[in-house]
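queue> pop job 88
queue> type: inverse folding (structure -> sequence)
queue> payload:
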C-alpha cells in the first residue's frame, strides 16, 4: 500500500455503532468527536499532557509502597488486636489451601497494579524524552500490545469492595478499624482511575508511528 493511501486511511475513522466513515480532525483538549448519524463518541483529544500522565504514574508508584506495607485492616476482638496487610491477607488464604484465591488476590491487588503503573510510566518516559532507539521501540510496542491484558488483571476496585463487605460483616462481633494502608490503597485506586481516563492507547500507537 502506498504511503499516501496509508495517510488517507489514518485521517478517517469508522463509527463503532453505525459504520459511517468520518474524516478525522484535530480537536481541542476536553472535546469529544461524535458520530453525526448516531452520536456515538468516536475519538477525543488526550485530556492530559505527557507531564500530567507522568505525575499520575509517579504518585501511583509512591502510593504503592505504603498501600502494600501498612496494614489495611485492624481487628479488635476480645482484647486481642490483629492487623493485616494486603500480602498477609493473601498469604493467610494461601496457607489455608485456597491456592487459586490467594494467587488471584496477589495478582489482582499487588502484581498487576504495579505492572500497570510501570508500563504506563515506561511509555510516558519514552515519549517525554523522545527516546528513539531499537530497544525503546521494541519495548514501547510490546507494552502497547500487552496493555489490555495488564489492565484486565489489575483490579484494585474489586479488592476495596471485598474489603468493605468483609469489614461490615465482621463489624457485628469485632471492632474493625481501617489502617493507613486502606487510605493509601484507596488513593492508589483513585489515581489509577485517573490514569485510565487520561491514557489513550490509540494516541500512544500514533506516537509509535510518528
Ligand atoms: Zn454512528
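queue> result:
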Amino acid at each position: 500500500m502506498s504511503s499516501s493511501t496509508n495517510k488517507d486511511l489514518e485521517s478517517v475513522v469508522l463509527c463503532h455503532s453505525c459504520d459511517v466513515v468520518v474524516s478525522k480532525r484535530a480537536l481541542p483538549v476536553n472535546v469529544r468527536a461524535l458520530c453525526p448519524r448516531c452520536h456515538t463518541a468516536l475519538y477525543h483529544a488526550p485530556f492530559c499532557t505527557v507531564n500530567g500522565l507522568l505525575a499520575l504514574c509517579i504518585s501511583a508508584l509512591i502510593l504503592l509502597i505504603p498501600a502494600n506495607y501498612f496494614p489495611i485492616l485492624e481487628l479488635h476482638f476480645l482484647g486481642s488486636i490483629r492487623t493485616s496487610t494486603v500480602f498477609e491477607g493473601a498469604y493467610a488464604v494461601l496457607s489455608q489451601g485456597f491456592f487459586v484465591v490467594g494467587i488471584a488476590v496477589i495478582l489482582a491487588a499487588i502484581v498487576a497494579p504495579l505492572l500497570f503503573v510501570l508500563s504506563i510510566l515506561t511509555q510516558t518516559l519514552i515519549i517525554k524524552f523522545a527516546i528513539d532507539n531499537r530497544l525503546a521501540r521494541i519495548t514501547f510496542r510490546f507494552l502497547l500490545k500487552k496493555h489490555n491484558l495488564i489492565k484486565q488483571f489489575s483490579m484494585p476496585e474489586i479488592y476495596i469492595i471485598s474489603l468493605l463487605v468483609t469489614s461490615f460483616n465482621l463489624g457485628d462481633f469485632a471492632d474493625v478499624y481501617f489502617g493507613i494502608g486502606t487510605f493509601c490503597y484507596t488513593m492508589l485506586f483513585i489515581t489509577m482511575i485517573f490514569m485510565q481516563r487520561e491514557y489513550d492507547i490509540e494516541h500512544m500507537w500514533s506516537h509509535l508511528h510518528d
